[in-house]
UniProtKB/TrEMBL annotation:
GO biological processes: methylation
Protein name: Methyltransferase
Domain DNA methylase N-4/N-6: 30-271
SUPFAM superfamilies to which the protein is assigned, alphabetical: S-adenosyl-L-methionine-dependent methyltransferases
High-level lineage: Bacteria, Bacillati, Actinomycetota, Actinomycetes, Micrococcales
A Pfam family: N6_N4_Mtase
């Protein structure tokens, strides 16, 4: 059972994210980071959401529930017949992300080069093209290099804001990075570092470093911290509903934000429990064995005193 309260503790929630999301209140989050699994939607079936609140003044763009939206979906399906399932999986969750962002809020959607272009069109429809803020390229240099094409060493993060006239973005708060040629700028500038652009060179989580949790798809906290710093304020609520090892939670702790991290995998929740337990309440999914225990405890409590 989700126990989110605006003045309550940060939460780690185990379970199907759509079920948890539907219990969270509108506009509760300043920032959402999502790193969904690649095409696992094939195994997932989601209940379609059929309504979404439109913002004032956004009329005139393609309505998601309208005929043009359906046509657009059919066109997408024709391009890639493996896509509709992933689309069906992601779409209701992105609609929830839109609902849950406050009016200053920002979504960071982290995808690989095969999915990102479809997702861009989907987000344009859900958020509106005017709400597209950035395409961030995370570039790294690790692992084998194929000789059959350009070796792929980047991932893409789409950035959408809830309201292009009200969104929060504070570049002063962002971790700066070293100049590539520090000799070309003043010593003061070199010492301060430069503001990151939309191309982020950042190492992957080191297989031997302290940050490594053992969770296979863990992303570097340095990446997610930048997003949190730029797009929320201390004390704000931030959300990740494909949370894995809880990287967003770790970035929130470092920057004094409150967080909700949701994942359906018990293994992910184990990792988050040890990584974030001093900073959040952990709510496990009820499984058959825990239900049995709960019934036993209940029976014991109700047993008449002898
Ligand atoms: C790519 S990983 C996220 C990794 C994370 N960014 C990190 O740094 O550790 C995607 C996560 O989504 C979770 N997931 C997939 N489908 C889900 C669903 N329907 N509800 C909740 N979690 C889901 C998986 O268990 C997995 O942990």
């Amino acid at each position: 059972m989700t126990t989110f309260a605006v003045d309550g503790p940060s939460l780690v929630l185990e379970g199907e994210n759509l079920e948890h999301l539907r219990r969270l209140p509108d506009g509760a989050f300043a920032m959402i980071y999502l790193d969904p699994p690649f095409n696992t939607g094939r195994a997932q079936r989601a209940v379609r959401t059929t309504t979404v609140r439109r913002q004032e003044g956004t009329g005139g763009r393609v309505g998601f529930a309208g005929r043009s939206y359906d046509t657009f979906r059919e066109l997408l399906a024709q391009y890639d017949d493996s896509f509709p399932d992933y689309w069906e999986f992601l779409e209701p969750r992105l609609l929830e992300a839109w609902r849950l962002l406050d009016e200053t809020g920002t979504l960071y959607l982290h995808l690989d080069y095969r999915e990102v272009h479809y997702a861009k069109v989907m987000c344009d429809v859900i958020f509106g093209r005017d709400s597209f803020l950035n395409e961030i390229i995370w570039a790294y240099d690790y692992g084998a290099r194929t000789r059959k094409r350009w070796p792929t060493k980047h991932e893409t993060i789409l950035v959408y804001v809830k309201d292009p006239s009200k969104y929060h973005f504070d570049s002063e708060e962002v971790d700066r990075e070293p100049y590539m040629a520090p000799g070309l700028v003043t010593p003061e500038k070199a010492a301060r570092g430069k503001l990151p652009t939309d191309v982020w060179w950042h190492t992957i989580v080191s297989p031997t470093g302290r940050e490594k949790t053992g969770y296979p798809t863990q992303k570097p906290v340095g990446l997610v911290r930048r997003m949190v710093q730029a797009s929320s304020r201390p004390g704000d609520w931030v959300l990740d509903f494909f949370a894995g090892s809880g990287t967003l939670g770790a970035a929130a702790v470092e920057t004094d934000r409150r967080f909700v991290c949701i994942d359906s995998s018990a293994e992910a929740v184990d990792v988050m429990a040890s990584r974030l337990e001093e900073h959040a309440e952990v709510h496990r999914a009820l499984r058959e064995d825990t239900v049995a225990d709960a019934v036993l405890v209940g029976d014991e409590r109700e047993a008449p005193a002898s």
